[in-house]
Write a structure and sequence with these properties.
By secondary structure, this protein is mainly alpha-helical. It has eleven helices and no strands.
Length: 235
């Protein structure tokens, strides 16, 4: 994880555009996830999860900006850079809604809207939905950070990095963990409401909590190793 530098106006525009594109990729991946369930039945969730992971892989490969990926930099980014989180989230939302509009007016709409409606209806109207959404989104945030971290920590570049990025995404999508940006796509087909927006906000909180677990543990490990080294040097 790197410290963020002060951005020029051109870099801010680029940041927003890459966040927008990231939202589009989540929208495309989410559509593929829904379509696979419509076509392949029982196997559709697994196949759809693999397709969804390709969207995240594209985001990583082209260095797009995804809110749930940016969360992993919170422990090191500094308070002056916290503005990037809401800005990235906003443009992710715009990107995923743009993709949703395209799907809505395409032949795919009839094949994905029913699946999306059923999925979101089960989530939003479940008993204790707030707690379930929070726990589910924490697990999603953890796996997203694990996926993003694979770029830096995979033992080999190329295939190992690709597998490292995709596998945690396949797991979270297959398990149905809540991703705040992807849920916006499904909510579009379900229909926006106050309760639906509240559900997304709970997922945002959960994604943040889950997303910072690994970075904080990593910082603690670095601090612990540094302390041990200093003690040995004092001896």
């Amino acid at each position: 994880m790197k410290q963020f530098e002060k951005l020029t106006k051109a870099q801010v525009v680029s940041f927003c555009l890459m966040s927008f594109c990231s939202g589009i990729m989540i929208g495309v991946g989410g559509t593929a996830f829904l379509l696979a369930q419509n076509i392949y039945g029982a196997w559709g969730k697994l196949i759809g999860s693999m397709m969804f992971s390709l969207g995240i892989l594209a985001i990583v490969m082209f260095e797009m900006k995804l809110f749930t990926g940016l969360i992993s930099d919170i422990p090191e980014m500094g308070a002056k850079n916290f503005w990037k989180l809401p800005v990235c989230f906003l443009w992710n939302m715009l990107g995923v809604l743009f993709a949703a509009m395209l799907v809505f007016y395409s032949p795919l709409c009839d094949k994905v809207d029913k699946i999306a409606f059923e999925m979101m209806d089960a989530k939003i109207n479940a008993d204790l939905w707030e707690i379930k959404a929070l726990c589910s989104s924490i697990l999603c945030g953890f796996l997203i950070t694990l996926s993003i971290g694979a770029v830096n920590y995979a033992p080999r570049k190329g295939l190992s990095t690709t597998v490292g990025v995709m596998f945690p995404i396949i797991v979270f999508a297959f398990c149905g963990f809540d991703h705040s940006v992807a849920n916006t796509l499904y909510l579009f087909f379900y229909g926006f409401s106050g309760k639906g927006v509240a559900y997304i906000l709970v997922c945002v909180v959960g994604n943040i909590l889950g997303g910072v677990i690994l970075p904080i543990l990593s910082l603690f490990r670095i601090w612990s190793n540094k302390t041990e080294t200093e003690k040995e040097q004092e001896k």
